[in-house]
Design a protein that fits this description.
single chain, 183 residues, alpha+beta, Bactericidal permeability-increasing protein, domain 2, 4 helices, 6 strands, 37% strand, antimicrobial, lipopolysaccharide binding
Length: 183
């Protein structure tokens, strides 16, 4: 139990318990809402790693040999319910995800290429900017394990994935959690 502060002026007090946070995570996971498919056409052309067998050849040379310059898809999903814990200054979460890569053939058949299991620890801290409630997200740890027919060099891919999360994922999450005020 946490004692509630006494205030002598109007204030908003927002309390989130681990039960509420984990119930929401369970609901999203059970409903299948923690899934996302990414195709090569969804990435910006300037993105450093395109979803094509040619780009993935660095991590899985067999892909480029067997399927020269074919597009790929990445199916992201939660392997299990995220675990959340509440602390006075932040919400900590452990995410258990998987990224399954497919080669897309000209007849639209999808050939499984490899599977990456990605476990990440994140921290979200509430923020108030110009009377707007938001949050900032911080990645504290990320572990990648790989398997599959075209077994990638996981250490290189893990390094690239961590870099991508820091460079693109965390800023995107922060822009979604705390959008800039509209003029």
């Amino acid at each position: 139990p946490t004692p509630l502060p006494t205030a002598h002026e109007p204030m908003l007090l927002l309390t989130v318990t681990e039960f509420v946070a984990n119930s929401a995570a369970f609901t999203y996971f059970t409903a299948g809402a923690l899934r996302r498919n990414i195709s090569s056409s969804m990435l910006p052309r300037r993105f450093p790693l395109q979803l094509k067998t040619k780009s993935m050849g660095v991590f899985a040379p067999q892909l480029q040999e067997r399927y020269p310059d074919q597009p790929m898809e990445l199916h992201l999903s939660a392997r299990q319910q995220p675990l959340l814990s509440c602390h006075p200054d932040a919400l900590h979460g452990t995410l258990f995800g998987s990224a399954e890569a497919f080669v897309v053939l000209p007849n639209t058949t999808r050939i499984p290429a490899f599977l990456l299991n990605i476990d990440a620890n994140v921290t979200g801290k509430p923020t108030i900017t110009r009377n707007r409630l938001g949050a900032s997200v911080h990645l504290t740890d990320c572990v990648v394990r790989g398997s599959g027919a075209a077994y990638p060099q996981v250490k290189r891919l893990e390094t690239l994935l961590k870099f991508g999360l820091w460079l693109f994922g965390v800023p995107w999450a922060n822009s979604e959690c705390c959008p800039h005020p509209r003029p």
